[in-house]
Amino acid sequence: MGWNSWNKFACNVSDELIRGMADALVKSGMKDAGYQYVVIDDCWQVSRDEVGNIVADAQRFPHGIKGLADYIHSTGLKFGIYSDAGSKTCAGRPGSLGHEYQDARQYAAWGVDYLKYDWCNTTTQDAPAAYALMHAALDATGRPIVLSICEWGKAQPWLWGKRVGGNLWRATGDIQDRWEGKKEWSPGDCCSYGVVDIIDAVADLYSYAGPGHWNDPDMLEVGNGGMTDTEYRSHFSFWALLAAPLIAGNDLRTMPPEIHDILTNKEVIAINQDPLGRQGRRVRKDNQLKVDVWAKQLTDGSRAVILFNRGTAEQIIAVNWKRLGIQQISSPQFATSGNTKISASRRGKQQRPCQLMAWQCWQCDRKTF
Ligand code: GLA
Q1: If you measure from the C-alpha of residue 36 to the centroid of ligand 1, how many angstroms do you get, rounded to a whole number?
Q2: For every one of its 369 residues, what pLDDT tens digit does the chain have, with 9 covering 90 and above?
Q3: Which of 42, 57, 84, 118 does the annotation list as catalytic?
Q4: 208: three-class secondary structure by DSSP
Q5: Which of 59, 87, 287, 334 would suit a FRET pair with 33, their CA atoms being 20 to 30 Å apart?
Q6: Separation between Cα atoms, residue 242 and residue 195, nearest integer Å
Q7: Is 174 one of the annotated active-site residues of the chain?
Q8: What span, in angstroms and rounded, lies between the C-alpha atoms of 55 and 37?
Q9: Which of 121, 174, 184 most suits a substitution to test ligand 1, by most atoms within 8 Å of the C-beta?
Q10: Residue of the nearest CA to atom 9 in ligand 1?
């Protein structure tokens, strides 16, 4: 769990911004809720010096990356940075190709705890080999550094990400702040994803996720303004059920209470962080009614459930709890067994029913598992 600069600020990063975000993580209670890593994404780096060392933007980072990392650590948080396996990053800054060990040593000297390693400008490079190389370089420093593989799912990193030392791997193209719809970046260059597109793309990858090696459906857009609060609740709830890394991507200094409450919901975070580390699965899909039922097994044998109405109209979702292995429902609204009819709507005026799908039906006791 953590925060990353890209979704909201893109290349507009600076020492002041990142310190502000670390302070806000602490003040808002997000650190206490479990968010740990503060990650600067692309654009902190400008060039290499005469011996090939990576050089940070001195105007935007006047205290150097070490100064910033020290500050982040002084707040009790961890510090992450971004690079790319190719010759240049996606924003055209120097990549790590040919400098893997040199960069890893530099990161360790700065006190980096997390590296997001991207895949732009890699031409004919082999993805598993490139990520294995950076993992070996990080390993050689002796400092534990989380390796976040950002290869967008092109070479199916769920098949090799764990083997090459990755702790999480992006499974899709970039998320954008919208509910649904893939969009080409430019003609023929596919695609950015909406929340629903990502949910569908990672649905079948559940067997690859587990403690220390996660499918990454990309960072959160909660609070960035493009969706309704209900959609943001659904986005957050799904990321929790999918055992996704929860990396906030909004401006924490100015977030309204509704957004704060979504990002710090303790019950939902507990489901995400459940030590069994299972990614939730779609257990029913009704294309005609446009409803899904999803369930995530938890350590104590109980299930977290999402009743997902994909449509815009209010919908009756009939669930056979027993078939999900649920004998008794803990929430009083659902104190019943067998087929239960629940009215749930994703958006529009039906605010209360909407919430059913993500909140009240979260955790269901199991009696016989
Ligand atoms: C790629 C990644 C994004 C972000 C940008 C930075 O698009 O997928 O998450 O890191 O690069 O340029």
Answers
A1: 21
A2: 999 999 999 999 999 999 999 999 999 999 999 999 999 999 999 999 999 999 999 999 999 999 999 999 999 999 999 999 999 999 999 999 999 999 999 999 999 999 999 999 999 999 999 999 999 999 999 999 999 999 999 999 999 999 999 999 999 999 999 999 999 999 999 899 999 999 999 999 999 999 999 999 999 999 999 998 888 988 998 999 999 999 999 999 999 999 999 999 988 899 899 999 999 999 989 888 888 888 888 888 778 888 888 877 766 777 777 677 666 555 433 323 334 444 444 433 333 333 334 333 334 443 322
A3: 118
A4: helix
A5: 334
A6: 12
A7: yes
A8: 22
A9: 174
A10: 174
